[in-house]
C-alpha cells in the first residue's frame, strides 16, 4: 500500500510537470533530498528521479514561463564549476570509478540550473522552502523522537544509498534545515499560535536528532549558527538565555558515551579518527600541488595515499568539503567552489539589507537572513564532512538568486526610471508612487 501511494504521488507530480514544470522542480527536490523510494520495499530500483526529471524537462521545452538561469553571479560561477569538473574528469586517476559520481553531480547541478529557470514567483519560492523543510524535517522529527525515546544512546541515520546516509551527513543536513524552519515560522501571523508552536517543536526535535547523531561536526555547526544568531539578535540577553537553556537541556539529556565523544574535539591529537582526517587533508593538498586538475572522484585508495599522504596506510575519505574539492578538482576547483558560497552569502546579505525597502518584500529579507544562517551551518559543519556536492546548499543558491531577482523586479516596478538592481529608498518610492 505504501509503495503504491509513493509511486502514485511521483507519477502525479511527473505528469503535472509536463504542464507546469515548476511542480517538477518541487518533485525532483523532494526525491533527491528525502529519497521517498528508499522508504519502500519495491521502489528502490525504480528510476523515479529520472521520471521526474523527464517530465520537468518536457514541460520546460514547451512552457513560456521560463528564463535564462544565469540570473545571479552565483549561478554563473556554478556553471563555471560544472565546466571545470568536466575538464578535470579526463584527468581522473580512476576514470572508470569516477564516472558514476561525475554523472550524479552533473545531474544535480543541471537540475539546479533548471530550477533557476522555472522558479520565479513568491508562491513558488515559498513552496520550494516548504519542500526543503518537509523533505528533511521528516528525518529531523522522526530522529528527534527516536533520540528522546532512547535517551540519545543510539545514533540517528539517514536514508540508504544517499548523500546523507551516514549519521554525520544527516546531522549537517538537519542543521542547515533548522533556519529554514525558523523562516517559515516567521511568516506565520501572530494569531496562528498552534502552527508557530508546532514549528518550534519541529526545530527542537530536529536539533535533538542532529545532536543524537553523535556528530562532532554537527555540534560545531550548531554552535556557529547559535553564535551568529545571537550576534544578530536585537535582544541579546533574552536570546542568549533561551539558546543557553536549550543547549543545557540537550547536553544533560545525552548519555555519557555522547559526552565522551564530544570531549575528543579538543583532543584531536589522541583521536584516531581526527588524525585520519588530517592525514586525508594533507593527501588532498599534496595531490593538488602535484596535479593541476586534481585526481578526480574516488581518489581515496591505498595507492593514492601511499603517494601523497604523510601516513601512507591510513586511508580515509576527505571529511571536508574544502579538501574534497581540492583533492578532486585542484586549486581552481576549490576557488570556484568557495566563490559560489561567497556569492550566495552576498545575495543573502543583499536581501536582508535591501528587501526591507519594499513593503511587500519583507518576507524576502527574512529569507535572505535565514539562508545566511543556514550557510554558516553548512560551511562550518562541512569543514569536517564530505558533502561538497549535496543538493541542499545548492538550493540555498536557488532561493537567494531567484528571491533577489523578485525583489529587484518589484522595486523596479515601483520606480521604472531607477537603475537596474537598485531598490528605491522609501523617499524615492513615495515619489514614484505619487
From TrEMBL:
Location(s) in or outside the cell: Membrane
Transmembrane segments: 46-63, 75-95, 101-120, 127-150, 170-186, 198-231, 237-254, 321-344, 373-390
First-listed, main subcellular location of the protein, grouped into a coarse class: membrane
Annotated keywords: Ligase, Membrane, Transmembrane, Transmembrane helix
Residue ranges annotated for the DUF5935 domain, each copy included: 1-185
One GO MF term: ligase activity
Domain O-antigen ligase-related: 202-338
GO cellular component assignments: membrane
Top-rank lineage group of the source organism: Bacteria
Annotated membrane topology: Multi-pass membrane protein
Protein name: Putative O-glycosylation ligase (Exosortase A-associated)
Amino acid at each position: 500500500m505504501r509503495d503504491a501511494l509513493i509511486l502514485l504521488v511521483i507519477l502525479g507530480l511527473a505528469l503535472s510537470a509536463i504542464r507546469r514544470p515548476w511542480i517538477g522542480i518541487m518533485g525532483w527536490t523532494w526525491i533527491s533530498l528525502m529519497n521517498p523510494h528508499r522508504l519502500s520495499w519495491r521502489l528502490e530500483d525504480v528510476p523515479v528521479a529520472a521520471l521526474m526529471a523527464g517530465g520537468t524537462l518536457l514541460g520546460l521545452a514547451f512552457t513560456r514561463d521560463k528564463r535564462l538561469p544565469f540570473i545571479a553571479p552565483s549561478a554563473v560561477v556554478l556553471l563555471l564549476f560544472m565546466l571545470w569538473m568536466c575538464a578535470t574528469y579526463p584527468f581522473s586517476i580512476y576514470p572508470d570509478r569516477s564516472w558514476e559520481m561525475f554523472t550524479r553531480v552533473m545531474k544535480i547541478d543541471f537540475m539546479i540550473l533548471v530550477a533557476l529557470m522555472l522558479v520565479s514567483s513568491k508562491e513558488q519560492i515559498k513552496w520550494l522552502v516548504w519542500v526543503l523543510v518537509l523533505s528533511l524535517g521528516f528525518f529531523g522529527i522522526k530522529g528527534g523522537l527516536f533520540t528522546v525515546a532512547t535517551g540519545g544512546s543510539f545514533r540517528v541515520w539517514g536514508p540508504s544509498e544517499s548523500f546523507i546516509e551516514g549519521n554525520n551527513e544527516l546531522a549537517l543536513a538537519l542543521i542547515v534545515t533548522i533556519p529554514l524552519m525558523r523562516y517559515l515560522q516567521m511568516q506565520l501571523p501572530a494569531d496562528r499560535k498552534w502552527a508557530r508552536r508546532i514549528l518550534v517543536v519541529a526545530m527542537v526535535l530536529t536539533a535533538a536528532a542532529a545532536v543524537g547523531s553523535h556528530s562532532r561536526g554537527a555540534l560545531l555547526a550548531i554552535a556557529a549558527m547559535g553564535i551568529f544568531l545571537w550576534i544578530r539578535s536585537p535582544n541579546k540577553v533574552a536570546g542568549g538565555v533561551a539558546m543557553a537553556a536549550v543547549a543545557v537541556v540537550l547536553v544533560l539529556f545525552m548519555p555519557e558515551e555522547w559526552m565522551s565523544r564530544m570531549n575528543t574535539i579538543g583532543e584531536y591529537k589522541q583521536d584516531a579518527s581526527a588524525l585520519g582526517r588530517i592525514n586525508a587533508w594533507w593527501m588532498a593538498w599534496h595531490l593538488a600541488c602535484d596535479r593541476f586538475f586534481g585526481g578526480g572522484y574516488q581518489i581515496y585508495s591505498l595507492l593514492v595515499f601511499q603517494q601523497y599522504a604523510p601516513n601512507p596506510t591510513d586511508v580515509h575519505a576527505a571529511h571536508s568539503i574544502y579538501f574534497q574539492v581540492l583533492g578532486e578538482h585542484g586549486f581552481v576547483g576549490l576557488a570556484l567552489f568557495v566563490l559560489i558560497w561567497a556569492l550566495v552569502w552576498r545575495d543573502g546579505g543583499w536581501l536582508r539589507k535591501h528587501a526591507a525597502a519594499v513593503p511587500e518584500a519583507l518576507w524576502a529579507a527574512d529569507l535572505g537572513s535565514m539562508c545566511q544562517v543556514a550557510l554558516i551551518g553548512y560551511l562550518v559543519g562541512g569543514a569536517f564532512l564530505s558533502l561538497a556536492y549535496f543538493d541542499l546548499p545548492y538550493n540555498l543558491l536557488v532561493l537567494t538568486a531567484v528571491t533577489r531577482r523578485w525583489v529587484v523586479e518589484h522595486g523596479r516596478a515601483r520606480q521604472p526610471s531607477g537603475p537596474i538592481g537598485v531598490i528605491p529608498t522609501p523617499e524615492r518610492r513615495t515619489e514614484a508612487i505619487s
